[in-house]
Amino acid sequence: MGLGSLSGVLEEIRITGLGVIEDATLELVDGFTVVTGETGAGKTMVVAGLGLLFGGRADAGRVRRGTGRALVEGRLRFEPDDPAQKLVLDRVAEAGAAPDEDGTLLLARSVAAEGRSRAHVGGRTVPVSLLGELAEQMLAVHGQSDQLRLLSAAEQRGALDRYAGEEVAHLRETCKQQHQAWRQAVTELADRTTRAHERAQEADALRFGLSEIEAVNPLPGEDEELKAESRRLEHAEELRIAAYTAHQALAGDPTADLESADVAALLGVVRRSLSAVAGHDAVLADAARRADELAALCGELGTELASYTENLDADPARLAAVHERRAQLAALTRKYADSIDGVLAWAEQAAGKLADLDTSEEALDALRARRDELAAELATTAAALSRARQAAATRFGEQVTAELTGLAMPHARVIAAVSQKEVAEGAQSVVIDGRRLAVTGDGVDEVELRLASHPGAPELALHRGASGGELSRVMLAIEVVFAGAGGPPTMVFDEVDAGVGGRAAVEIGKRLARLARTHQVLVVTHLPQVAAFADHHVVVVKDSDGSVTTSGLQSLTADERPRELARMLAGLDDSDLATAHAEELLAVAKAEKDAAA
């Protein structure tokens, strides 16, 4: 399985000056990577570094003495086609950062010895909270002291919904749309009811304006047309004299001599002169043609001027009527818009707004009916969503409980409790089966993952019902069941095998390997049975030089892995018996993985 098989992964992390780690770089691939090492070598610092990189609490006490600051850098690769990751990339863009050309995003978090913390994404300084937003979509860290993703109530409900599949996804989307429509109806009704007096005044003003406009009944573009007509009527005599003079000059007296002849007569002389010799020279032939065109244009213009003069009306009564109409239109443009077209647009908008401002009892009754209709639709969908979630919760609890049996918790049960919160009248709620329930766009349900550690034990929230080691195993079982239902592509487990050994450790390794088929899995462990199932093995190595201890990260080859497993088995890396046992473990793990593939 190559890097490209996952939708988004952590490709590299570099840790400097954190705890016992002076400077170490861990290159990550997809699949199952295990981190091992001697006690005190700094295995947990790898997980601590990841937590810091993704927005965890900055602890100045973990800054390596003498370094001045701890620095954790990471490189993420995103797939923009993944909707969840695209949302994160959009958020990154809002912060002014961007991935590199190869699609990777560089992250950095530093903690100074005096406690000051800084975060960088894509080379830009950003709030630490942005790193936390990245973690929600990209990384899930499970450890005995971590704030676990699945301990969030909202994430527990979201994870159960993803597990439930298409039916719940469809109902949830429908519920969200219906809730939005219902809230809009509720808000509009409340607004109309509480602001009835103010709305009535606004409606009266709109009705008055519409009645004024309706009384004048303007036509589109009428103000400009009347303005042009007014100019013609006011200057009718000047226009008549100008048109008559121009007409006389063009075609006044065709019999006059050349010195007093009009344009038409002179053009006639030009045409006859040129036409007589047009056959002898191409230049004069072209000139004769253009003279013919001028004569035709001159004739048309003369005809139009004659008609204009005959039709020009200097009617004082019409001029008075135009002035009166323009005054009516001007009164409208002063109050409602700069032009009559603008006035008509205002009237159209006002009519629509007037309908929205309707506070009559009939209108309010119609809104109440619409609100109740939408509430009934929302209640029906929310009830169906609740039933689908309950069915999924039952299946989920059974599957996780079955997983726990193989993880040395045979008597424990995990329950996905789906409940609803009853509220008082007037709260944001719907009525389902006679109960008034709080409702949101996600429905009426609250989901809580609970653990009953043994028969007869009370069902408690995960973080209250399990010890640190048990909680890691419970989370592993949950993540294995959730594996095919989305969630972060990278999962980190710290000491998930605490308190177990033997066959149970082998079962943990098998489940981590199964989870790694669809996720990038990073595990810190001290058990060779778990490490044997890894696809990639990294050892935290420790060097001692007086009072200074440094740790680094070393990737093991296939030939080097038996020696490390032998050390984990017997505390001796040069024991032939331990090495043989380690090789047997690796062979068993490979056979198990091949059989499950």
From TrEMBL:
Sections of the chain in a coiled coil: 357-384
Cited InterPro entries: DNA_recomb/repair_RecN, P-loop_NTPase, RecF/RecN/SMC_N
Keyword presence, Cytoplasm: no
Ion transport listed as a keyword: no
Residue ranges constituting the RecF/RecN/SMC N-terminal domain according to the UniProt record: 10-546
UniProt-listed Pfam families: SMC_N (PF02463)
Keywords carried by this UniProt record: ATP-binding, Coiled coil, DNA damage, DNA repair, Nucleotide-binding
CDD domains, alphabetized: ABC_RecN (cd03241)
SUPFAM superfamilies named in the record: P-loop containing nucleoside triphosphate hydrolases
Superkingdom of origin organism: Bacteria
Similarity comment: Belongs to the RecN family.
Record's function text: May be involved in recombinational repair of damaged DNA.
Name of protein: DNA repair protein RecN
